[in-house]
Amino acid sequence: MLQVNHERVAKLLQGLASFTDSEEGVTRLAYSPLDKKAQSWLLEQVQDLHLQIRTDAVGNVFLRRDGKQQLLPPVATGSHLDTVIHGGAYDGMCGVVGALEALYMLQDEELGRSIEVIIFRAEESSRFGFATMGSKLLTGSAVPEQLNKGAKKGDISFIEALREWGCNPDAYRDAVIAPGSYKCFAELHIEQGKVLEQTQHQLGIVHNIAAPTRFKIHIKGVADHSGATPMGMRRDALVSAAKLILAVNEAAETEKANGSVGTVGVVDVEPGSINVVPGAVTLWVDVRGVDKASIARVLQSIREQAENVAVCDGVGVQIEMLTADSPVALDKALAAQSEAICTEKGFSFLHMNSGAGHDAMHMTKICPTTMLFVPCRAGISHNPAEYASTENICRGIEVLAEVLRREAN
Amino acid sequence: MLQVNHERVAKLLQGLASFTDSEEGVTRLAYSPLDKKAQSWLLEQVQDLHLQIRTDAVGNVFLRRDGKQQLLPPVATGSHLDTVIHGGAYDGMCGVVGALEALYMLQDEELGRSIEVIIFRAEESSRFGFATMGSKLLTGSAVPEQLNKGAKKGDISFIEALREWGCNPDAYRDAVIAPGSYKCFAELHIEQGKVLEQTQHQLGIVHNIAAPTRFKIHIKGVADHSGATPMGMRRDALVSAAKLILAVNEAAETEKANGSVGTVGVVDVEPGSINVVPGAVTLWVDVRGVDKASIARVLQSIREQAENVAVCDGVGVQIEMLTADSPVALDKALAAQSEAICTEKGFSFLHMNSGAGHDAMHMTKICPTTMLFVPCRAGISHNPAEYASTENICRGIEVLAEVLRREAN
Question: Which part of the chain is the Peptidase M20 dimerisation domain (chains A, B) (predicted)?
């Protein structure tokens, strides 16, 4: 196997980071023209790998290196290129660039099975309110119609975005891959937490993924003049919403020991004028954990508080579920193989869980799946300050390349 | 004096309501192309009044009917045409249409003084974060530069809007009117509260106007991944903001008996993604009252809670003052004159205060000023359901016309 090329890895990551809609951090929303430009640029850079390129019916891209035994299911790896608003340059990109660099490292190897690098579309929910959309559609875990109701005010819907991207949303079934189509799937990713850094490990081997439960809370009060409406005569939707923002936080704080978290990330206020008592508010909520019972308790507590606020404040409160995924267990044999590889290479490693959701979580439905985590500075992610060192990333790529080599033989 | 024409009043109010950017209610933001179109339409409708039309350096419009003694300061009346987002068809328009109808009623009268109808620009703060901008500039109470920092994300600044409207912001001093330039100013307006309806009075005679104190609260936390950031490691700006939304509400509730109110009408969340812990939040706050000491206690309480939250949550909290107007007393002699007119006409009336701010509040600086309130249904205003009956409005116009007649003689 050839040596990992630090310079090429750094150059590709830097190049991708330049495709951004914001000066601060990287903003490259899923299915945006910039998402397409970044992908085209990347594919140009790796033309010398001579990969076969295929795009499926929902925009996922497959880069294939043929093996000798083309009838056997290929080995798959990959990640995503889209980012949150004001995100970083490593979340997702690290796994796509890492997969391509692994193929460079394997250029001198004759392998039995083919290898496919998958660029999943829309892993982040920043644009359409749903996460891991490409891998959900690929594994038959959702249909476009279901993912169409999270669009933000002023943006086009997901189905319109699919058409704009050049896809035919009606042909979404063509994108679904049957179980057994791949021998296995491996995803390299930054940790997006502080555990590896604080415990001084060079690599994380992931065993469980905490999947998000997402919902909107709609609060309906009465819009009124902010000067002429006495305090006792108001039904201010934002005051009720504030109580529910605190209720989400408290419900998750109570389950802190079990690793659950809860976040309100978006607040829509209607009409949103300084001189009008808010008449309606929508909160977008994200709850996660690896312990199903703990997640259920968080959700139950939020539901109870929503009912309390509705009764006490005389406002309408309605919860609209968006997604409710279960925590996912990854493949134990592949984890053991990564452990063996780390030991051989002298890399320190930690067995751990993922607090963030990943495309790998859906790939478990069609093949044995594994994930490798690279430490990131201060655990900061989804933020312009997101950073992972090229050294740490390249250690991850070395292990990934060896996993692909062993699985493809 | 001629009879008030109910049909013309209803037709002008309905016509103005058709100039809207929203299907629900009326949305006609200050200095927008729609604001201009509505004004042009109205001026066409009243061409038969043969008024002299003048626009000042900041966009306020003056419609003048000459009196016999042109060297004497004219009598002024008027209101505004701009609305909040999803507002009603009466707030402001009632006073402009009412002033024009009063001129129709006075067509058979020979009057000593001239009468000017003023259409003030940007009474509502919905677009630029500041209220009564036209009357502030007209009375020298502000300069454009001061009013330029409240622009919303994605919109142009106030100074840019002035240029777009055809004004020269640098010539703003030309718009300032010296004290004594008018004999008096009278504004007809809907109450925007429930007092007249609940006490069954046909007209309100206003004695004090509760002016708004407006400020932004900036909360600075740390944006982070919503899945991989444990609860104990967060500095969630929105959780701190929720505490301050409740603090504003509580501070005003405590001063309810003294008539003070407090409202958070706008919440800006950065970055505003469901999968990112909010890193920064800005709240737009409006506090009002007629009792200066009570307002001061509300502001002090909010300031103390802001400091508490900053210390307890480890976030940055900064208060940025926008405006801090004082409650304003209107002219007692003019109020007594309106009382006499109501008594003569057999209209029931109530002496009262205004919870909402009005252009009249700034006109007190240059001449004796009075306001007349028309009841509005359920006190609802700044809302599509805002409604005042033509009968009630026309009673107000009858009194206004008589006030103008007496003052102009």
Answer: 214-310
Q: What is the mean pLDDT of residues A359-383?
A: 95
Residue B54 has pLDDT above 90, yes or no: yes
Query: Could you give the CA distance from residue B227 to residue A285 in angstroms, rounded to a whole number?
Result: 12
Dihedral (C-alpha) B86, B87, B89, B95: value to the nearest 10 degrees?
-150
Q: What is the domain range of residue A72?
A: 6-210+327-408
Q: Is the pLDDT of residue B32 over 90?
A: yes
Determine the pLDDT at residue B362. 96
Q: Are residues A121 and A217 in the same domain?
A: no
pLDDT (average), residues B274-292: 93
A-chain CB neighbours of B295 within 8 Å are none
The torsion angle over the Cα atoms of residues B331, B336, B338 and B343, rounded to 10 degrees, is: 170
Domain annotation covers residue B16: yes
Q: Is residue A1 part of a domain?
A: no
Phi, psi of B72 (to 5 degrees): -80, 150
> Nearest CA to CA, how far is A236 from chain B (Å)?
9
The answer on pLDDT for A13 being more than 90 is: yes
Judge whether B409 is annotated as a binding position. Answer: no
- Whole-angstrom Cα distance, residue B311 to residue B240? 11
Same domain, B57 and B180: yes
Give residue-wise pLDDT tens across range A198-234: 899 999 999 999 878 999 999 999 988 888 888 988 9
- Both B241 and B158 in one domain: the answer is no
Judge if B108 and B158 occupy the same domain.
yes
CA distance A167 to chain B (A): 26
| Residue A285 with chain B: CB contacts under 8 Å | 274
Q: Is B275 annotated as a binding residue?
A: yes
CB B381 within 8 A of CB A225: yes
Residue B317's Cβ-count burial label (10 Å; 0-12, 13-18, 19+) is buried
Supply B125's token pair: 């703060």
pLDDT tens by residue, B318-334: 999 998 888 999 999 99
Residue A356 banded pLDDT, cuts 50, 70, 90: confident
CB-defined contacts A:B, below 8 A = 260
Mean pLDDT of chain A: 95
Do residues B64 and B140 share a domain? yes
CATH of the domain at B134: 3.40.630.10
Domain boundary among A324, A356, A371: A324
Query: Do residues B205 and B290 share a domain?
Result: no
- With bands split at pLDDT 50, 70 and 90, how would you rate the model's confidence at A191? very high
CA distance A357 to A288: 9
Domain final residue, candidates B292, B324, B356: B324
Q: Is B285 in the same domain as B333?
A: no
- Cβ contact (<8 Å) for A356 and B227? yes
Q: Is residue B74 part of a domain?
A: yes
CA distance A23 to chain B (A): 14
Assigned domain for B236 exists: yes
The full length of chain A comes to 409
- Do residue B337 and residue B404 come from a single domain? yes
Cross-chain residue pair A259–B223, CB shorter than 8 Å: no
Contact B242 A239 (CB under 8 A): no
pLDDT in tens, B101-148: 999 999 999 999 999 999 999 999 999 989 999 999 999 999 999 999
Per-residue three-class SS string for B238-249: HHHHHHHHHHHH
Q: Look at chain B and report how many structural domains it folds into.
A: 2
